[in-house]
Amino acid sequence: MEFRVLRYFLAVCQEKNISKAAERLHIAQPSLSKQMKDLEDELGVTLFTRGHRQISLTEEGYFLRDRAQEMIDMEQQTTQALTGSKIVIGNLNIGTGQSFEIRPVVKIIDQIIQNNSHVHFNFYDGYADDIEAKVNDGSLDFGIIMGNRPIKDFESLILPERNQFYAIFNRALPLAKKDKIIPADLIKYPVIFSAQGQVNNKFRDWWGNLYDQVNNIANCNLSYTASLLASEGHAIQVTYNNLYDKDLENLTARPLSPKITDPNIVIWKKNRKLSNLGNLFLEKLRNSLNQ
Prior knowledge:
By secondary structure, the chain is an alpha/beta fold. It has 3 domains: 3-83, Winged helix-like DNA-binding domain superfamily/Winged helix DNA-binding domain (Arc Repressor Mutant, subunit A); 90-160 and 264-290, Periplasmic binding protein-like II (D-Maltodextrin-Binding Protein, domain 2), CATH 3.40.190; 164-260, Periplasmic binding protein-like II (D-Maltodextrin-Binding Protein, domain 2). It contains 10 helices and 11 strands. Strands 3, 4, 5, 6, 7, 8, 9, 10 and 11 form a 9-stranded mixed beta sheet that branches. Helix 5 packs across helix 10 (276-290). The longest helix is centred in the first third of the chain and has 25 residues, at 59-83. The chain is rod-shaped and about 105 Å long. The mean pLDDT is 89.
């Protein structure tokens, strides 16, 4: 059954007369009669009881009338949604480093999920180098990278929230008496850094002439294992604030001084056609920045 023929059928149902329906549809009466007969033959049922001046529907005709109207309504709604770019479905793949400060982005994602029942988000945790590569090859739709990095090869938005570096350590250490941690405080202890090279380069200037005395005993990808090691009471973990495991009650945190921060940057591939879901995410993100 074609939607065109179903519309013709509904017109005949409403007019109860082939000639009047043909006039309304601007087609020849014999052509409309033939298409109704062909529809009956296709379905193998009689749809009309044909009288001299008026036709009436059979039981099968009433059944098809109701179903045809449902199908036409659905077809119109689907067409409007597609042509108006309103339909939001599918997956969105987002890569990100770990940071408490990307919470505003997570709130946007939560809003989208609440208002659209056929969407799905895939999150990929990784370093900036890895995320950039995956955005570039198309396996990620968006990436959220941390740090001052060259991003001219991507479209980008810089988020207002910044990540601040803290020292994480066992509260039994003398450092717990300090409000802030300066470079001279840390050369007395083994230090755990992120394995990402950009982070280590950032600290070279912070250490100044003490850089060669730094005892970097471990590097980590994610923060949890490093927090466990720091909780043993010998090493100091240097990471973004709020990333250490708060369930480890013997841990405490102090900001580094001078203060060190990293930006959060949302990137996506240049000239890539985004899905409706991707465009919605980007629209809400831009609106949040404008506010």
